[in-house]
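User: Thanks for the earlier help. One more: Thiamine diphosphokinase. Can you show the sequence and predicted structure together?

Assistant: Of course, both are below.
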Amino acid sequence: MIGLICCAGELSDRILFEEYYEKSDFKIAVDGGTKYFTDYDKDFDFAIGDFDSIKIEDKKFLEVNNKIYEKYKRKKDFTDFEAAINILIEKNCKTIYAFGATGTRLDHTMSNLIYSKKCFDIGIELVFVGNNNIIKFLGESTECVMRYDYISIVVLSNNGMRIRLKGFEYDSENLDVDYCSTLTISNKIKDKKAYIELIEGYGLLIDSRD
């Protein structure tokens, strides 16, 4: 099962959204993320949140169409994003695409990105999709396909990361990357695909463009 959640961040390109929408089985609007479905005229399963970031017309749409699954209090010990992820996990989704989950609120952006490790640890792939970035947790060796212009690895493990890079402009054997290092920022794939062999550590894999 593949899940799709839409949060209240920047609205992504319609073609990009429809690509991921079509391959998703279960779709949740998170608060103001309802705009994805109403603006692009797409059906979805239901909406959750405290509904503090939603447009008035979208909230009326949810109420008229009985789309509100869970309404939370504004004061709570979890975010709407985390609640949506947990619902999709209960629905047995093994891959989750998140739109609008990165944006101007850096506290939400960073906590959402870090949450990808918790998902990885229980066998869930969480992928953040947007007009300028596609981001996922890097916790194992992986084939890499570049959609945008740059491939970057941000090291999150305290003891750093050891990797082998094959098929990149900057290939490497047994590359040691320190925690917080910028060594693995702005690489490129030479052809269509490349490979990252993860020997030790973990981080974020980011496909980005300006």
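User: Great, one quick takeaway?

Assistant: The longest strand covers residues 193-200.
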